[in-house]
Amino acid sequence: MADDDIVLEGIDIHKSFQTGAGTLDVLTGINLGIKKGEIVCVVGASGVGKSTLLHILGALDRPTRGKVKLDSTDVFALSDKKLAHFRNKTVGFVFQFHHLLPEFSALENVMLPRLIAGGDVVSIRKKAEELLAEVGLSGRIQHQPGELSGGEQQRVAVARAFINEPLIVIADEPSGNLDKATGEELHNLIVELNRKKGQTFVIATHNQLLAELGHRIIEITEGKAVPYIVRK
Ligand SMILES: Nc1ncnc2c1ncn2[C@@H]1O[C@H](COP(=O)(O)OP(=O)(O)O)[C@@H](O)[C@H]1O
Ligand SMILES: [Mg+2]
What we know:
The chain has seven helices and eleven strands.
């Protein structure tokens, strides 16, 4: 694996939480590298630390020890302000629950991260409309989240994750709240966006079907990432 292919690198990531019952060591030395254009699925039992790892890889939460390099930038060496700006430009997120803003339309929700990054409203609107068309929602752009089905809400969340043309999209149980058929539609959309745009994804899932769509599966057990299981 040539180093310059790696867009996201986790180096000796540790994460502990202080709880009433003492220190909980969740991640105890995770090392991984994600290459451009890969779909990597992170699996493991409930409570093993998948979300914790994804939050750290996406620079939403700091590790207790270790580093994350995104596009060769040591993200946790940045000030909080620079980190927030860097994250907005570099990482797109899709969560189990869509986290769309209820009082805004689908179109506005998709535009928002790009408006925050700065730019011309007319072109941002055009880009958001294009993305909503790509996820099959041309006819729903003025709908508010409450007027959309669960699957449609997740498609809006995917379009929003793409608006800043992020280096990497991090998805935490993206189909965890969808029925089987709707979940499969979302999985197909992820694969299609990966093929068409070369979009890199890191996806935590306990959905076996989704895990198998990835190029690689990484399993977390006892705080460590087991050696990559090469799927394809
Ligand atoms: N902020 C927190 N404070 C204390 N414990 C936490 C916190 N966040 C997560 N945990 C604990 O860390 C473990 C891993 O959680 P999580 O990453 O959400 O697991 P997964 O996504 O694999 O189900 C769990 O035991 C959870 O209770
Ligand atoms: Mg989780």
